[in-house]
Amino acid sequence: MSRSGKGYFFAIMSGLIYGIIPLAILSVSRAHAASSAFCLTARMVIGFLLLLPLALKRARTTERPPHCWPKTVVAALLGTATCVLLYACYEYIPSGIGITIHYLYPACCLLFNVIFFKEKVARATVIALILSVAGVALMCDPQALPEGAWKGLVLAFVSALCCGLTFLYLEKSGLADEDTPVYCDRQLLFSSIFLSAYVAFRGELHAEWSPAVIFCLIAAGVLGLIALLIQLKGIELVGADITTILATLEPITLAVGGVLLLGDKLSVRSWCGIAMVLTAVILITLAGKKKEEGTLPDSSV
Fold first, then answer.
1. Which of 122, 155, 168, 243 is the most exposed place for a label (fewest CB within 10 A)?
2. According to the model, what pLDDT value does residue 301 have?
């Protein structure tokens, strides 16, 4: 297999695996065996411990600049808020709709760039933003959504805002230039601490242990780490832009899995909305790639 072929394979697999992880967590939380926040904490802790040997090895050999711990703390807080908000929305709306709205984060990141850094917007991006709004509107089908779904929609959208802000912060703070496994393990450490504090504050530091629960939590942690590592490999082989585009398989995987395994119900209108949002994400990513290559100097508005 060629270098690019391997990169496409790794990118696709990372999107598929990331879409499976919520199914493991939601199967536990919706069975009331443990809260979703507890499951997230377990996933972060397991991921941190599994990645720790590699991170320690690379930390001793890396020639990157000294690490800035306060910036990592801020990034971990943003990442933790993103996870908590996303899984909280699943209590009110189907997982497929929740993760698709969350995937508006590229548009949110672009919006922050426009507001705070006066970045120009390409016409393709404007079209993508319109598609995003229209897609979300289609997903808000009163006949397909349960009572109180507006809470889940708001939580999902705020999670997208937090995620977009996280990526923007990583870029502007310089954390994105750090050795990736080392930085990821440090962020997993702080995310584990913050999530543990959150779970303890809510009095949810308990679970109804069973072989199935233990299996799901370990699977979430292991799959999360595998997805991260092969995603990094995909970025190395074919670049972040293509990897991000192929990562849109995550909401599709979760939407289908939610219907088949979790009993979520989606109307034809909702599926059309999901397709429009994913199309918008791809357009935004491609527009960003062309802009970086300098091919859109005359198409901004």
1. 168
2. 36
